[in-house]
Amino acid sequence: MIPRIHQQGSNTLGLLHYLYGKGTHEEHINPHLVASFDGMAPDPGCDPSVTKKDLQHLLDQTLSLLDADQHPDKHVWHCSVRAAPDDPILSDEQWGDIARRIVAATGIDPGDGAGCRWAAVRHAEDHIHIIATLIREDGRRPDHHRSGKRAQAECRLIEKELGLHQVAPGDGTAAKRTTSAERHKAERQGRERPAREELRETVRRAVAGATSEEEFFDRLAAAGLLIRKRIAPSGDLLGYKVALPDDRNGEKEPVFYAGSTLAPDLSLPRIRERWTLPAEAVASVDGSGPEQPALPDVTGPAFARRRATAATWQALLIIDNGDDGAAAAQIAAAGEVLDALAKTSAAHTRAELREAASVFERASRSHVRAVRGHDRALRQAARDLIHSGPALGRGEDGATTAMLIDMAFFLAIATANWHARKHHGQQAAAAQQAAEHLHAAYEAAAAESMALLRQRGQRLAPRARQRQADLLREVLPDLAARVQVEPGWAALAATLDDARKAGHDPGALLTEAARRRELDTATSISDVLVWRLRRSAHLPALPESSRETPAPGSRRQGLSAPSTPLTQGTVNHSSRRR
């Protein structure tokens, strides 16, 4: 159940016209009162002899207790309370009780006999609106400080008592929601999303892997945004605003949004923190001092994805075992990697990756302050992905994309578990939701490459297949039978054979891969092990012979997605080693 305190207004009658009207798309059905301050307020929705002005006059009567020059500029308080989509339909009596509890909890009508006048209007099955005049019966102003938080706390109690969907409590670190006016404007203009959301995503992508203000603003300009910078008299840059070129107000002027109003971590000072790498923080991560030479330039999308996979693995270790500040830095930088991955991956994975990046954004912020410097490798990985350019959806590009998404999934699960341990409900839920989108993206990315690897495994000589089966039973005696009936077993056998031919000890590699993170909850153990082995042994994600020979039944011939290596675990699982 979500309460929302709307901006205070000065027109009681105007708001009543909206609440009792048809709605912007005639979505208001049977508007009527479910409760009021005295239980006897006139209801223009049910009594034809009553007008909206009658109700407005009753609500605003307390204004007459003050001299005209003492009237507040904005005296209208407005709160909507909405049930979750999966909640049962509540009765008018239940909504009336909810309204009385909300006005009491927020200080609008605390039950002392002299509260504000208010009324609760229901014009849809799933929500009500509460309108109140912010002058009490004794002429004083109500104590409704922090009414939003107080309403949230009361709704958590109501959810438990009525057995409704329990919303994770917030902590004030979420990005500002779009307003109903912004949503309606987007609908009128035929936009897929409100301007605020589109700008937030574009700015996030511009930040991903950027190393300077100049690069950041160049990316914003390249994305087609209008930019307005705030310059101090000294010439120093203090802040920035951005706008979509075709998002205009009534005067046909661009509507600008400051970075801090898009998200707390998109203000210029917070962005600058990403570019400041304290020497002690860098040294604590990789053992190097500030004089460490720069990493070589990326030579292609596949190489960038391999390096990003390695950086993601290191981030997993820090989230599982590092201190809070280091873990928070890794989680924040993981969001940059997801943004970069969504921007540069093939079309058949882009939608799910974009959704994963969008919802993970909520998981990237909490009250645990990120210690910058610990995120150096992940931020470099995001930069590599951007500068390497778009990846193909096939061949080595496609296979290394699947490898990176596989690792990103486990990073999202580790993030969800980390937040859950700290009782960050909204962040944990967001990370879990991101993992679900990454799951779907993996299935799309891995379909062709896993089919080709399975084909290679099926062509192995019987003696070679038996050798890999014996090795599997030796290393994983408890899981071997399960692995050998999985569709991905042939791909794992081929990978073990590739490792042997490359001069590695397949048994040692398999033992190490199995130890990195538990396997019991994996949907496909063999798929998980394929990527672990190919990464740790530095094998091509897709061997050259597989790239040259199309696999029978591959995607061009209607291949279905392979079973996924992703775990079915929830945030309640203990954190796992990858």
Would you give an account of this structure?
The chain is α+β, with helices and mostly antiparallel strands and 578 residues long. Helices cover 51% and strands 9% of the residues. It has 22 helices and eight strands. The protein is elongated. The two termini are 37 Å apart. Mean pLDDT is 86; it is low at 279-298 and 548-578.
Order of helices and strands: EHEHEHEEHHHHEEEHHHHHHHHHHHHHHH
Shape: elongated
Could you tell me the radius of gyration in angstroms?
29 Å
Distance separating the two termini? 37 Å
- Oligomer state of the chains in this structure: single chain
> Helical content, roughly?
40-55%
Strand content of the residues, in percent?
5-15%
**Tally of helical runs:** 22
Largest sheet: 5 strands, antiparallel
- Class derived from helix and strand content: alpha+beta
Which runs of at least 5 residues are low in confidence (pLDDT < 50)? 279-298, 548-578
> How are the strands of the biggest sheet laid out side by side?
1-3-5-4-2
Keywords summarizing the entry:
578 residues, alpha+beta, five-stranded antiparallel β-sheet, 22 helices, 8 strands, 51% helix, disordered C terminus
Secondary-structure blueprint:
Layout: E1 2-5, H1 12-19, E2 32-36, H2 52-59, E3 76-82, H3 92-106, E4 116-124, E5 127-136, H4 147-162, H5 180-189, H6 195-207, H7 213-222, E6 226-231, E7 237-243, E8 257-258, H8 259-262, H9 268-275, H10 279-286, H11 301-321, H12 324-344, H13 347-363, H14 376-388, H15 395-421, H16 425-458, H17 462-475, H18 480-484, H19 489-501, H20 506-516, H21 525-536, H22 544-548
Antiparallel strand pairs: 1-3, 2-4, 3-5, 4-5, 6-7, 7-8
Helix pairs in contact: 1-2, 3-4, 6-7, 6-12, 11-12, 11-14, 11-15, 12-13, 12-14, 13-16, 15-16, 16-19, 17-19, 19-21, 20-21
